[in-house]
Amino acid sequence: MISFHNEGGIMYRFIFLLFLSFQTNAADFVHPYPSFSEGEKLYTFPDFLNAHYYISYDSENKSASIKAEISFKTEEEGYPLFDLKENPTRVELDGKEIETPLVDSPKKETKFRVMNQLTSIGVHTLRVEVPLKFLLRYTDKGVDSAFWLADLDDRSFLENYIPSSFENDSVEMIFDVSFKISADQQIFANGEIERTGDRDFRITFPKEYTSSSVYYHTTPLGSFNERRFEIKSKVSGKVIPVIVYSKTISNFNSYEESIRQTMDELEADYGPYLHSSFIVYDADLSRWGLGGMEYCGATVTNLWAVQHELFHSFFGRGVMAANGNSGWIDEALASWRDGGYFSNQNMRERRALVLDFPYVKKTNRLAYSYGKNFISFLDGNTKMPIEMKLFMKSLYQKKSWTPITTEDLIVELDLFSGNSYQQLFDEYVYGNKSTLDASELWIEPNSSEHSIHRKISGEDLYKIL
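The structure corresponding to this sequence follows.
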């Protein structure tokens, strides 16, 4: 995870088509966030049904803009919430122009945008117009633009760019992308890309995607060196296309070898790869001292971290996090795998991986160290023995494409083992709230950050755009 805060030729050679498999066990809207009141207003969390985004790039004016049309459903009368960092220029709810001010969550762990109109139970339409300003750069060759995400900072998923729902909400998304540019552009995205006009493209993303799933990157044609190859799954038999692209590296053999070996390993351990493609952007991160970021079937990474990021297409962007309080799970599992699946029979400290705040939208950095050690403790605990890799296989096959919470993890551990893990989680994951202040124990010092995932600024991201 990175944290931070066209005309084409007639051959259409710059379109990279990525088809991702559609699974039937995905949940649309799981673990709805609880509504909350402020004064006489009840703030509610709607279920996004579909979202259509019109993204326009204009090289003459060096600008970009987004128009969004979103269909959503409400189960309570109130004031619906969504998120968008940039201030919109116009918002309509069911055809009526409204304001969308920012409001704090009850304990101020994050902010939301509120549709400032009392809304009845049922299906509604939200239209939003907003400029695209972040990670946008025009050159004499074209435009560089990316919707890169982060999970170590608050409000750094799709809401950094476009109006969006949250990690617990699977949404059908379409990007219609239009370039008013005289140069050829290429698009890398983990959705199905088709050309719809001379300078127009449509990207259709799987219905299982949430606000932390989408990978989107457009750049002038020819900006990158590329290696494309295919992996035939030894488990399912399907062919998985892979692309590795980079501005700096030219020898892709090591990448290909590492990806092939890791794919074979993970499929053998957990089951068939969910996604139908794998995109790797080698952004020369070590040059800048930066970390990587995972997406569904995609990553921004380094060669030395690509195995960790591919693991996230199984856990994190396969079995998915429903909120920031469950983001520790996949990072702890990935770090445990990185460390060789070691076992511990004792835990020498108690920390808090989960806050008693339901609206947390970022991952606890303790996941990489303390969380990893807790997973190894589950594996090595002699009082309640459980083979964690076998449990992970069961979890992957049962919960693929499903956002899960820490509470879900406890339920699944209990069902798999026949034991009760609540007390263990109370003590080592929730920080034993009776004796410890979880809010003070949650944040890990910067000096202890995991080397694969380091927090970086928006300014840093422009270096790799």
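The mean pLDDT is 88.
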